[in-house]
């Protein structure tokens, strides 16, 4: 059974670009490994400081912890954030397309 988690936070303005670069490094590692049972998307909202991550995984726990780039991303998240991060389990109500 798939588990969906939505993570939302706002970075300090001066940390937003660094945060985006760290997220891009996570996606580079995930793409290279191509793990089964994992879907992960990150959005940077219009103001540039707010980020939303959507993690869908088939297993229990957070599979992203296996990636060194994700651990680097997590290391300074408290210093980069002005608000959050906030974690919420989510359920699909409707979807179209992929």
The multimeric state of the shown protein is single chain
Helix and strand succession?
EHEEHHE
DSSP summary, beta strand count: 4
Instruction: Report the principal-axis shape.
Output: globular
* CATH architecture descriptor name: 2-Layer Sandwich
**Average of per-residue pLDDT values:** 94
Percent helix, as a range, is 25-40%
Distance between the termini: 18 Å
Number of helices: 3
Name the descriptors.
single chain, 98 residues, alpha+beta, Alpha-Beta Plaits, four-stranded antiparallel sheet, 3 helices, 4 strands, 35% strand
Describe this structure in words.
This protein has helices at residues 16-33, 68-75, 77-80, and strands spanning 3-11, 38-44, 50-57, 81-90. The chain has 98 residues and is of the alpha+beta class. It has one domain (3-90): Alpha-Beta Plaits, CATH 3.30.70.100. The chain has a 4-stranded antiparallel β-sheet with strand order 2-3-1-4. The mean pLDDT is 94. It comes from Catenuloplanes indicus. This is Antibiotic biosynthesis monooxygenase.
Structure at a glance:
It comes from Catenuloplanes indicus. The protein has three helices and four strands; from the N terminus they run βαββααβ. It has 98 residues and is of the alpha+beta class.
């Amino acid at each position: 059974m798939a588990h969906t988690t939505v993570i939302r936070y706002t970075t300090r303005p001066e940390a937003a670009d660094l945060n985006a670069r760290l997220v891009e490094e996570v996606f580079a590692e995930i793409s290279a490994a191509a793990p089964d049972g994992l879907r992960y998307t990150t959005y940077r909202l219009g103001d540039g400081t707010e980020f939303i991550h959507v993690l869908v995984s088939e297993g229990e726990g957070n599979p992203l912890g296996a990636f060194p780039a994700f651990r680097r991303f997590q290391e300074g998240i408290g210093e980069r954030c002005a608000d959050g991060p906030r974690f919420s389990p989510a359920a699909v109500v409707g979807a179209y397309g992929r």
